[in-house]
């Protein structure tokens, strides 16, 4: 704010002059010395000297002059003055002069000697006059005279009348002198309507003097003081009481001060009104605008500005900020805008124009500040932006637009002064609003909050305007930043003007400020502004901000600070600064800012002569590439120049390590493993692709080697540079061989002279003997030039862009073709143990019955080729059925929930072991779930330190055992009276305690009906009634009694039960029933209510049973022992009524296609219903399949006679069909024999004497050479056409067939789309070369033989993979439709459904052919 007069910016407050507080010299106090008063030689401290000093400190400590003071307290701006201070004259002529009324103020534009004459608006001296020269209140401190005290010699002495008379005369004389002094000051203050207040300092003894009131009245009247707040008396008091006095004095005088400034406002308003009624009270001279030496009086617009500004100031003095803002400052500003809009009123580049411009800027700051006082942030910012926009438009009209340094100097000044204003405000109570997205709930809370800094209008504005910095008030750091940017633009314009001056050897900028601009230290100003912005941005940065934009702007400001240090020549400071902030830029991955920072940093290193730093920076800049305006080879050339022109500082230097861990790597890299996991000992294929940058060249950089480092214990692989190839291909493939812990194979080399966007793909396999995980951990590039050796390590998973590149696999080098890898984490591979082949079988005869010992057979078979140690865990899962108690038992272990670690022993390959798991369930029926876990480990294997790496396989099965009630019982009760007669009274037995009278009650007949509820038949071995005894019952039949139920049921006994022994030992099937009946005699009480009381039965039945008809298993094994034919087997079970079994299972069905040597098993469940040796049901097994179906069947039947040439064939193989077509085309006699290509028997392989030909070209050559008499030849005659045909046969094998297989095996839709596109492209290329009905024209050739088997099978991908011949091209459809009708093709073709059975495995990606395995692993089809 130093650019503007402080008087025009300061917050105005009422001014109080305080006089009489000057510390007097060491003189005695004004007390008359009495002859009777003894003098003491010891000097005493005058208490009024201390009081004066403390009063001065208290007044000075009050309100200070400041720009930001929003507090509305009744306080003054206090100025200590001398008692004899004089006020400036109101007019230049004396008051008694006749021309006094026509005279004007010394600061009026109408006064010739005024600095504003004749057309000035307002001067800072006018504000200074009202803030430092003329007060609103004058406080005068004086010492009242005190006559020295008299101490009589004796208390009995009477008062001395002479001395009292002398004291009164002296006091009256001194009071008259004091009144005259006050009256003189009163006269000067009355001339300006200034309130005068006198404070008389007296001792506490004086305050108790009864004559004090009379003296004060005399002084007030003689001096002419007002009766209100005009006279005070103060005695020496404590510091706290002194502060209260100062505050109360200000409060008492605040109203007179307001009246003073109100009177001034009224006087100014009257003058403004007179000017509004009369356009001008002075003649306007008719002189040309801008004529030198002639004064132009102030226009009415200027008078309006002057008066409005004065009234605004007086309103601000009164503390009425709203009136000052809305009624005066804005009117003055608006009139200034009108004046600036006319060059006739304010000619540009004149003194008055400059003064008016300063006044407009200061009024803008005043308006902005007063808006901020009211927390109207949006209005404050709007006014500030409008001011910049309007005066920016004016500046263009004045010829000082954006192309001049004056324009940007002024813009920077506006932003800086706003930043300083906000900084002052935030140090007080101003709160910058938060512009994050507004939550409606928080808005409501802010409305209710007392300290909410924003109004509802501003919150709504924030919602609609977003976070545009020009539309929402920011913290002061942002405006410091804008001021710095504008100052940079100012410096650019100044340097351009200086350059023009030097170029033309004449002043390029004739503006008067150009000479002053040369004295300005622009870079120092820029550094100061950027430093303040940087500190404030860090201060206001949210601690947990999710959005990093604000933090990145802070980093950008830091970069600009370093850039400014560089431009000012402070290279060491710039380097230290770049070192600090570059760490944050790298961590933030802010490449757009880091690239120019590195360039400036490199320029500093060059200036300092730091060679190693230059090399490090150039290597790092290679990762970000050259800038758009630079030559792509500039970085490469600079690095080579530095390496060739310098040597390391040490004689035998270590390799320079340049770690780019947090920076952008030079090469784009992707590390891909073909599969996510492999087994121990199996090779895992991987590829590492390094791609050169596109925006910079590195072809001349002398890279000598690339080290590829792996995680784990794998050794690194070093690939050295070789110039074997004269021209570097776009995609170069380097085979690294196999890598294991024992070492690597071979010494690979490659050409490391990368062209832009060229790639080197390193391929290889790795394996491990133990479970682990592998990834390519680091790649180290070594660059060698002369004595320099530079190593550049980087992470192969690092990316050169913000988004990671898609993982892809190089499938073809010429032409380059990549396959996408759909896995999320394809940069690593997991090595796991080969799972053990364990077969676990759980056999049981469900459902189980409650309370039975239910056996479950656990059979474990070792189908692996290693000896395995077997351990079992059994878990009985908790059931949700209430009242159940379940137990499991295995060997000697018994538990209600878990049996752990049961050892099954070591099993040799092919050996089985069977253990019985027992399940006992009681309580309620329902399902019981049992989990059986079999853990297998290799016998003799070394146990690793990490248990997770143990070679252990767990096989888990869950068994659900339904549990039912074996027997369900229901009861029926019939009540009747006792059949016997009652005992008479005379019978003495009736008086025995244990006598039971059958005739005295009744009896209940209880029938228990029991039903066999389960599906299995039962043999009931025993039924017992377990009786219960009632207390106080007499002895009953058999000694069995029942328990008591209620006191009203006096006695109960069971007389007898029916005999059920004849029911025992019989078989009961599901639904069969048996029963038991018992009779119960009861002696009922007189008050017994049978509706309310229940009679419990005689006891519990115990039924013993065992199962019948336990099912057994019947397994039939079917083997196809034919050496060449597949089998289509149907099986039918033909039960007979006389059979002794009930059959559960397949009655009639078809077994899946059985290839030669194949085997299938079918199992039935048989339930025996007879005893002894019984025949199993009759079964009928029929092979309904012939060897080959379709047209091929006829061809095969015609070639069954023995011939010299035996054709071993798999009818479904497309490769076999190629040779078969050649045989049919040439008409060579042959004998057809079918073999299983997936299971070649040893006798078959040993019987083959001829060589094996796997390629169609080899077969064709063999047929032509071995049978030259058989025509036509499949191969063309001339050498050129023969070579051309072989090229396209190779194209079929390397492009068409792999694409076809990838499409048919693809399971994900994305991979299917890619494979289909690849197949379409290959077929289109092939079809484009067809020269007739066949590939070479009219003759059927080897090329047609090579592709036609896949044409005859393309209906499979058409039905399952959305393939269509029409979608390929019309040429392809025409060719395919024609060639598949060739006679030799039709004769070797089988029916479609037969192919579909075979190729279903390919569609499910389950085929195990070599071609399917190669496609699945990403290898070339063998």
Automatic annotation (TrEMBL):
Residues 27-47, 152-175 are annotated as: Disordered. SUPFAM superfamilies: GST C-terminal domain-like, Thioredoxin-like. Residues 33-43 have a biased composition (Polar residues). PROSITE patterns: GST_CTER. Residues 160-175 have a biased composition (Basic and acidic residues). Residues 1278-1398 form the GST C-terminal domain. This is Trafficking protein particle complex subunit 11. It comes from Mycena sanguinolenta.
């Amino acid at each position: 704010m130093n650019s503007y007069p402080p008087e025009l910016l300061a917050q105005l407050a009422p001014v109080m002059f305080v006089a009489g507080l000057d510390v007097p010299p060491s003189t005695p106090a004004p007390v008359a010395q009495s002859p009777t008063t003894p003098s003491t030689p010891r000097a005493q401290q005058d208490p009024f000297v201390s009081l004066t000093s403390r009063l001065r400190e208290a007044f000075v400590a009050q309100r200070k002059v400041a720009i930001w003071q929003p507090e509305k307290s009744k306080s003054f701006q206090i100025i200590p003055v001398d008692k004899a201070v004089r006020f400036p004259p109101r007019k230049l002529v004396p008051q008694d002069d006749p021309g006094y009324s026509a005279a004007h103020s010394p600061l009026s534009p109408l006064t010739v000697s005024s600095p504003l004459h004749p057309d000035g608006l307002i001067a800072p001296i006018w504000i200074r006059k009202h803030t430092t020269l003329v007060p609103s209140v004058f406080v005068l401190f004086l010492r009242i005279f005190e006559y020295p005290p008299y101490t009589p010699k004796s208390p009995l002495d009477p008062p001395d009348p002479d001395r009292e008379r002398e004291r009164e005369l002296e006091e009256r004389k001194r009071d008259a002198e004091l009144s005259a002094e006050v009256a003189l000051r009163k006269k000067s203050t009355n001339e300006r309507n200034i309130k005068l207040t006198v404070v008389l300092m007296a001792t506490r003894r004086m305050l108790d003097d009864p004559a004090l009131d009379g003296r004060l009245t005399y002084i007030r009247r003689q001096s002419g003081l007002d009766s209100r707040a005009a006279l005070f008396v103060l005695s020496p008091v404590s510091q706290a009481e002194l502060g209260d006095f100062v505050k109360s004095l200000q409060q008492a005088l605040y109203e007179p001060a307001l009246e003073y400034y109100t009177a001034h406002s009224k006087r100014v308003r009257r003058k403004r009104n007179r000017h509004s009624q009369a356009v001008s009270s002075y003649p306007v001279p008719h002189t040309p605008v801008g004529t030198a030496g002639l004064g132009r009086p102030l226009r009415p617009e200027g008078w309006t500005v002057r008066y409005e500004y004065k009234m605004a100031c007086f309103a601000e003095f009164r503390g009425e900020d709203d009136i000052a803002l809305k009624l005066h400052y804005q009117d003055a500003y608006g009139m200034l805008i009108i004046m600036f809009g006319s060059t006739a009123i304010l000619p540009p580049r004149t003194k008055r124009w400059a003064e008016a411009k300063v006044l407009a800027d200061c009024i803008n700051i005043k308006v902005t500040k007063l808006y901020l006082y009211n927390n109207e942030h949006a209005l404050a910012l709007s006014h500030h932006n409008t001011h910049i926009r309007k005066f920016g438009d004016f500046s263009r009209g004045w010829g000082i637009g954006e192309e001049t340094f004056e324009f940007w100097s002024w813009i920077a000044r506006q932003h800086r002064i706003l930043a300083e204003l906000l900084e002052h405000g935030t140090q007080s109570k101003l709160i910058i609003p938060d512009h994050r997205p507004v939550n409606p709930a928080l808005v409501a809370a802010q409305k209710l909050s007392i300290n909410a800094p924003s109004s509802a209008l501003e919150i709504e504005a924030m919602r609609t305007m977003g976070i545009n910095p020009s539309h929402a008030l920011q913290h002061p750091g942002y405006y410091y930043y804008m001021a710095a940017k504008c100052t940079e633009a100012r410096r650019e314009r100044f340097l351009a003007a200086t350059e023009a001056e030097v170029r033309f050897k004449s002043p390029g900028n004739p503006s008067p400020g150009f000479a002053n601009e040369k004295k300005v230290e622009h870079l120092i100003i820029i550094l100061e502004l950027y430093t303040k912005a940087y500190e404030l941005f860090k201060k206001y940065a949210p601690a947990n901000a999710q959005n990093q934009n604000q933090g990145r702007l802070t980093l950008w400001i830091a970069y600009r600070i370093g850039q400014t240090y560089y431009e000012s020549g402070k290279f060491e400071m710039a380097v230290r600064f770049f070192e600090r902030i570059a760490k944050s830029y790298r961590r933030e991955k802010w490449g757009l800012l880091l690239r120019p920072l590195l360039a400036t940093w490199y320029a500093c290193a060059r200036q300092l002569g730091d060679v190693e730093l230059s090399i490090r920076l150039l290597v790092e800049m290679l990762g970000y590439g050259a800038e758009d305006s630079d030559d792509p080879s500039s970085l490469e050339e600079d690095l080579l120049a530095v390496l060739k022109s310098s040597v390391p500082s040490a004689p035998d230097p270590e390799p320079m390590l340049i770690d780019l861990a947090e920076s952008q790597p030079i090469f784009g890299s992707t590390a891909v493993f073909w599969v996510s996991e492999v087994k121990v000992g199996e090779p895992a294929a991987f590829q590492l692709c390094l791609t050169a940058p596109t925006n910079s060249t590195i072809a001349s950089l002398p890279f000598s080697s690339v080290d590829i480092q792996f995680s784990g214990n794998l050794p690194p692989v070093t690939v050295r540079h070789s110039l074997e190839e004269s021209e570097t291909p776009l995609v170069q493939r380097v085979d690294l061989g196999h890598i294991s812990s024992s070492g690597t194979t071979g010494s690979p080399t490659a050409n490391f002279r990368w062209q832009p966007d060229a790639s080197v793909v390193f391929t290889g396999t790795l394996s491990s003997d133990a479970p682990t995980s592998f990834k390519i951990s680091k790649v180290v590039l070594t660059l060698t030039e002369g004595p320099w050796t530079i190593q550049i390590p980087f992470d192969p998973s690092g990316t050169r862009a913000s988004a990671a590149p898609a993982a892809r696999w190089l499938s073809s080098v010429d032409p380059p073709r990549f396959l996408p890898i759909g896995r999320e984490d394809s940069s690593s591979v997991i090595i796991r143990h080969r799972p053990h082949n364990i077969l676990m079988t759980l056999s049981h005869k469900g459902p189980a019955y409650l309370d039975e010992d239910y056996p479950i057979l656990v059979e474990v078979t070792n189908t692996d080729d290693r000896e395995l140690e077997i351990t079992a865990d059994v878990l009985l899962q908790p059931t949700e059925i209430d009242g159940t108690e379940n137990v499991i038992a295995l060997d000697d272990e018994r538990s209600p929930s878990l049996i752990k670690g049961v050892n099954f022993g070591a099993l040799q390959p092919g050996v089985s072991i069977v253990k019985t798991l027992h399940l006992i369930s009681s309580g309620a029926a329902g399902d019981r779930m049992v989990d059986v876990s079999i853990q297998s480990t290799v016998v003799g294997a070394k146990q690793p330190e990490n248990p997770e790496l143990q070679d252990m396989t767990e096989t888990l099965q869950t068994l659900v055992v339904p549990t039912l009630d074996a027997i369900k019982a229901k009861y029926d009760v019939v009540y009747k009276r006792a059949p016997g007669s009652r005992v008479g009274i005379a019978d003495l037995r009736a008086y025995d305690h244990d006598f039971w009278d059958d005739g005295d009650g009744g009896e209940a007949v209880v029938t228990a009906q029991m039903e066999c509820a389960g599906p299995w038949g039962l043999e009931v071995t025993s039924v017992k009634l377990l009786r219960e005894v009632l207390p106080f019952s007499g002895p009953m039949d058999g000694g069995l009694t029942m328990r008591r139920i209620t006191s009203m049921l006096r006695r109960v006994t069971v007389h007898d039960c029916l005999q059920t022994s004849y029911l025992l030992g019989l078989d009961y099937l599901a639904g069969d029933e048996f029963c038991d009946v018992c009779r119960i005699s009861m002696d009922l009480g007189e008050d017994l209510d049978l509706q309310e009381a229940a009679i419990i039965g005689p006891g519990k039945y115990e039924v013993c049973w065992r199962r019948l008809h336990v099912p057994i298993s019947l397994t039939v094994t079917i083997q196809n022992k034919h050496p060449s034919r597949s089998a289509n087997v149907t099986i039918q079970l033909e039960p007979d009524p006389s059979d002794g079994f009930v059959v559960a299972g397949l009655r009639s069905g078809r077994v899946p296609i059985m290839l030669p040597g194949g085997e299938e098993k079918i199992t039935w469940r048989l339930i025996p219903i007879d005893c002894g040796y019984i025949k199993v049901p009759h079964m009928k097994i029929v092979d309904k399949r012939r060897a080959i179906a379709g047209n091929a069947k006829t061809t095969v039947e015609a070639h069954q006679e023995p011939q010299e040439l035996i054709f071993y064939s798999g009818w479904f193989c497309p490769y076999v069909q190629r040779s078969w077509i050649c045989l049919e085309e040439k008409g060579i006699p042959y004998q057809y024999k079918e073999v299983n290509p997936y299971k070649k028997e040893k006798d078959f392989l040993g019987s083959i004497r001829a060589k094996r030909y796997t390629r169609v070209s080899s077969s064709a050559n063999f047929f032509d050479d071995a049978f030259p008499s058989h025509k036509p030849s499949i191969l063309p005659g001339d050498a050129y056409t023969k070579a051309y045909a072989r090229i396209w046969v190779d194209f079929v094998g390397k492009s068409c067939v792999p694409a076809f297989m990838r499409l048919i095996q693809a399971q994900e839709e994305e991979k299917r789309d890619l494979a289909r596109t690849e197949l379409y492209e290959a077929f289109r290329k092939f079809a484009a070369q067809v020269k007739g009905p066949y590939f070479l024209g009219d003759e059927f050739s080897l090329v047609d033989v090579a592709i036609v088997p896949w044409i005859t099978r393309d209906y499979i991908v058409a039905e399952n993979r959305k393939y269509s011949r029409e979608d390929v091209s019309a040429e392809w459809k025409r060719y395919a439709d024609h060639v598949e009708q060739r006679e030799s093709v039709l004769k070797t073709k089988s029916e479609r459904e037969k192919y579909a059975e075979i190729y279903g495995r390919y569609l499910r990606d389950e085929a195990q052919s070599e071609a399917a395995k190669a496609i699945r692993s990403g290898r070339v089809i063998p």
